[in-house]
Design goal:
Chains A, B: One of its GO terms (cellular component) is membrane. The structure is a homodimer. Chain A is mainly alpha-helical. Chain A is built from 30 helices and 8 strands.
Chain lengths: ~700, ~700
């Protein structure tokens, strides 16, 4: 607690002068009614019809042709970007960033394509088409749309739940190309692709509907603790899905229902010892360690090596070369296999299984938009530009719908790529365009080169990229120390994602959010106030033990809005605090007669309730106050209210509170109420042995 | 606005004296840190371990044998009642009340028994056994447990959903006795009874579990608007179920799914014109009118005719006598038929279909306990005794479990009977005992007398008794005028009960409750404050137009706790209020060049945020404040906070707010902050053409 500075000492005179002119209001205006009558104005209570008319009038003024045109063009942000583009300032940075991000897209696209249980080239498509669309309609230059682990996982689960389980086990020892060579397996691959594209279309449609209905505000319910807990739990699911690829095992099938993850681990441990492929394991573990070290060193010495090393691409190249020359596939190591060359032509999604896909589509839409929007908002806060939730939803929607015609599955923003995109010096959304140029070239020409790449390398890329999500566990520690309620939300979401599944975790998390918002209002602090010496301030006597309390006057403050869900608690605690407890006589007495506990006189004559925390009070709250007032009156105690804001005043008026109680029990400030109570005590017949002056609070 | 009384003029001197000694705190203590340092005490921050230890220690002191015994005996409230019973004072009133209520039970029991699609005698059992149990374990003397329309309806629906649909239509033209004479129909009746008793057992079990886990507090979520809307909607379902009996139609079957009620009405109107039985209709309509008139007149002249006329019993007697002598059953009018005589012996419920019955059991348990407890609380408020939610739950639970061994279905408190019970002069729970004596005699001896009673009479009794529930529609008007949020809750519950079903309505209502609690915090008022002349008070300039604002100082107040769900709204409105809007340039200009909107100097130099409404602030809120502070600092504006309570102070400390902003921007009161801002403005280099004194607010 540092000393005040010297110039403030000099202000002492000025302040005294101001204070003496700012005297407390005269007794006439102590009572709320008089105060409002003296100083208040007409309540600007526009009827709802008036408000609606004003709003419509305002909308109509903007219905000129030019305004409509501008409004339409605003939905295509790239036009504004091109209009304001400064070639000298932005172009080089955007090109470099585009190339850097494309280099990350290539291995990640293939890896996440496999995670989706589709041929890896589809991951490359998802890194190409949606990025172009987002460049046209999106507003966040640093957000990197494309493949994302959690969304790929959820897509895979949706496909699994729909597809005919014609094989019980995917044999991950075989290459995907050898699978596709047989007719029925080819059919199954096509079936998966068609389900995935239908899903992407539906996901985009949901997002577009939300955008058109301007429901972007719903994203506020997907709060930071929720997203953190959710993505951390989902990361563990992603990690688990890659373990078979590292160790060269078959992915166990038929594990469903609650506690899916523990059951899966039990099965994996069972088959691990039996079927482990040591070469694949060695490649996987080495890749993980090498990649992790490389990224760590790159991060550590970032300031010296100005550029971001493309560690994943280097791993992919090394892995491909080594596998090619040592012919690893002949040793039972699973490889990526044939990857189709060339960009696909537009084809209609088949829209089979739409009924079964609607529910996963809604869940995937919610998760993908919440992750993308929270990242966009984080960058907007950091760099000072504005992102509009509804425009972003439009962008995400179109970037799922249109690419679904080009064999793409659902996409979202990826944190790791976005951070790289931000750090590589790009400034505008054109980064996406340059990235797609590079990626398009790769897809057109270079994909056959990746044929011998071991799957274990791709799995290593996925696992190492989960590091950021795993580190979110420190959020749990942060919330635990700061805010137990947010910690509860994080934990409930994380645990339900872990124990049940990703979509159930989403719903549990959102419900917990709502329930917590109610629960935290149910048992607030209900404190006794005392007057801080030499001031007109009334503070909690627990934290300000030197604050005085007047005998026979109790000042209370209920630190939350009073409504149905906390009214019973209010009532119980209120009577406890003013010392009125029900007489409890046990059924079987222990021998001696209990004294009659009921005193004739209540301890307090006046109870003042400071209503400043009441941001809201409902009819149940008002009825309770009336009931308490009447009950106290019977006991010879008068209840005063103070510091009532408009929310409280207008419902007291509406419910005719004053007719049921008294007109003059509501004071403007707590101090006014105390003065009123002292005056009333002094004018009442006096008990000569009692003083009404303040006494120190005895702790 | 009445004038102040004369004695208050005389107090003027006293108040001046007090006020001059209660000067504003010195500048040293204007800043929050210094204030807390000077006046604050050690934060009584018991660690959670300490709190737990104290609690356990307190529990252990009550672990003496005598305390445990008393605690056990407290769970059998009738012991206390008998211990404190004053025969002279209570006995006569209790006997009269018991007989009065029994007289209501007889016709209602039979009617609601039929509503449950069971033989009517089971309604009489439900009016007998649970009442005895409640007498032993319940705490509310005025609550009349037994049959209740809504619960009977839900029981019937549960039975329907489980039982084999062996007949498509119940022929309500036949007597239930003629149905039971055929073998397969007898089997079906037995099947229904066994399902109903299993359901009663499960309902009681749910209530007992809630009681043992001391989850009575959960009943707070079943708020007044919810119960009102719910029971009103359910009353319409009950009314609909009785229409076939009035008109002598067959109850349509196979109507399920959403919009059940409208579909049912369509079907009924279809068969009405075809199958209507005029005699039954005449009896029904006449009974309704006669009963309604009788109750109305009885209510009107209550003060003259001291007693409550047993209108329903009189109707039953008249109906029985008329039907017997005119042999109505031969004219196609459906009658009650043979009613078993005698009280049943205990038999185990069969526990078939337990899996299917769990969900209806939970719903019925929730509805029945919420209705019963809300009535108990209403009577306890009115008469000044205490009811304990957990003890009541125990009573309801046992009064469902034990009677399930005696062929009873689930029960609840009934408002109409409870009001009568209250009004007949009874004082203790022994009313139930006397009522059961009367009822037991009827069941043992008199039931065959009711054989010719027309079903239309019972239906009339049910319909007229719904009047109270229908009148709850005026609650809608009340809430509409006073509190839109509660009105929304009422409407959502009512509409979903109507359009879908009673159990879906329950869940929708509870979810709406939670959602509304969050939604109302999302767009609170965000107001500008001004200083009320001659006072140190700062009020909303909309309601106090004469309040002064200082140039270059903006005082704002956000009227709700700041957390994740309203942080985006806060941010948007904040910048709007201080006049910092993003520069919008349309893509296509309309010809003239728009002026550069950005002024060099911001309008305000100091923005003071009054944090008195912040009952809670989470990490998202604190991060937002830090971000806003930094952003304003870049624009040359300083943000001050004032009126921060402990909830805000401790999280600002925990999140190291002061390290990220400044130590001295938090003031104790808004007035302190204004003085601080004025001082800072005065000591800054002055623009000679600006004055820093207050100016009238221009509306």
């Amino acid at each position: 607690m540092a000393d005040i500075s010297s110039d403030q000492e000099a202000d002492l005179n000025l302040e005294h002068q101001q204070l003496s002119s700012l005297e407390e209001s005269s007794p006439r205006n102590r009572r709320l009614y008089s105060f409002v009558g003296t100083y208040g104005g007409d309540t600007p209570n526009l009827s709802r019809v008036e408000c609606a008319k004003q709003y419509l009038a305002k909308q109509c003024t903007t219905l000129t042709f030019l305004c409509c045109l501008n409004s339409f063009l605003d939905k295509i942000p790239i036009l504004r970007c091109l209009k304001e583009y400064k070639i000298r300032k932005y172009l080089f940075g955007d090109i470099i960033a585009g190339i850097t991000v494309a280099i990350m897209h290539i291995p990640q696209g293939m890896a996440y394509g496999v995670l989706t249980t589709l041929p890896p080239v589809h991951g490359l498509y998802v890194s190409f088409y949606p990025v172009i669309i987002y460049m046209i309609f999106g507003t966040c230059p640093h957000l990197s749309i494309g493949t994302f682990a959690v969304i790929s996982l959820m897509t895979a689960q949706a496909i699994e739940s729909v597809i005919q389980p014609s094989m019980n086990m995917i044999d991950s020892n075989q290459t995907l190309s050898s699978i596709s060579s047989s007719g029925s397996d080819l059919l199954m691959i096509n079936e998966r692709i068609s389900i995935a594209t239908t899903l992407a279309f539906l996901v985009g449609l949901v997002q577009l509907i939300l955008s058109f209905l301007r429901l972007g505000f719903l994203t506020v319910y997907l709060t930071e603790p929720f997203i953190s807990g959710f993505t951390t739990g989902a990361a563990i699911h992603v990690f688990t899905s890659q373990i078979p690829y590292i160790f060269g095992l078959k992915t166990p099938r038929g594990v469903n229902g609650p506690f899916k993850l523990p059951k899966l681990y039990v099965k994996l441990i069972g088959i691990l010892l039996r079927d482990i492929n040591w070469i694949s394991t060695a490649i996987g573990i080495c890749s993980i360690i090498a990649l992790y070290l490389a990224k760590y060193l790159n991060e550590r010495f970032k300031s010296k090596i100005r550029i971001v090393l493309p560690c994943e691409l280097i791993l992919v190249i090394i892995g491909t070369v080594v596998s090619h020359f040592t012919k690893l596939s002949t040793h039972g190591v699973s490889i990526v296999g044939e990857i189709k060359r060339g960009l696909p032509l537009p084809t209609m999604p088949t829209f089979n299984h739409v009924n079964e896909l609607i529910s996963p589509a809604i869940t995937i839409a919610a998760v993908s938009l919440s992750i993308s929007i929270s990242m966009a908002k984080m960058f907007s806060r950091k760099h000072g530009y504005k992102v509009s939730a509804n425009q972003e939803l439009l962008a995400y929607g179109i970037s799922n719908v249109v690419p679904s015609f080009f064999q793409c599955y659902p996409n979202a923003g990826s944190l790791s790529r976005s951070v790289v995109q931000e750090g590589s010096g790009g400034k505008t959304v054109l980064i996406g365009g340059f990235s797609s140029i590079v990626l398009g070239s790769v897809i057109m020409a270079l994909t056959p080169l990746f044929r011998p790449l071991p799957m274990a390398c791709l799995a290593a890329i996925i696992i190492v990229n989960l590091k950021g999500l795993f580190f979110q566990v420190k959020d749990f520690v942060f919330y635990f120390q700061i805010s137990l309620l947010e910690c509860t939300l994080w934990t409930m979401t994380f645990v339900s994602v872990l124990l049940f599944d990703v979509d159930i975790g989403l719903y549990v998390g959102v419900c917990t959010s709502f329930i917590i918002n109610t629960i935290r209002t149910q048992k607030p602090r209900f404190v006794t106030l005392g007057q801080v010496k030499d001031t007109g301030l009334y503070k909690n006597i627990d934290y300000f033990p030197s604050a005085c309390q007047y005998p026979r006057i109790k000042i209370l403050r209920f630190d939350e809005s009073l409504y149905a869900c906390n009214a019973p608690f209010f009532k119980r605690k209120f009577y406890e605090l003013i010392g009125i407890c029900p007489v409890y006589s046990p059924i079987i007495c222990c021998g001696e007669k209990l004294e009659e506990n009921k005193s004739e006189e209540p301890i307090y004559k006046y109870v003042i309730l400071d209503c400043s925390p009441f941001n809201y009070i409902d009819t149940v709250g008002v009825k309770l106050l009336i009931q308490v007032y009447k009950d106290l009156k019977k006991r010879g105690i008068t209840l005063y209210l103070s510091e009532c804001r408009f929310e409280v005043r207008h419902i007291l008026d509406a419910m005719k509170f004053y007719e049921k109680t008294e007109l003059y029990i509501i004071y403007v400030t707590t101090h006014n109420a105390v003065v009123g109570a002292i005056n009333a005590l002094n004018s009442a017949p006096v008990n000569n042995d009692e003083s009404n002056g303040p006494t120190e609070n005895q702790v």
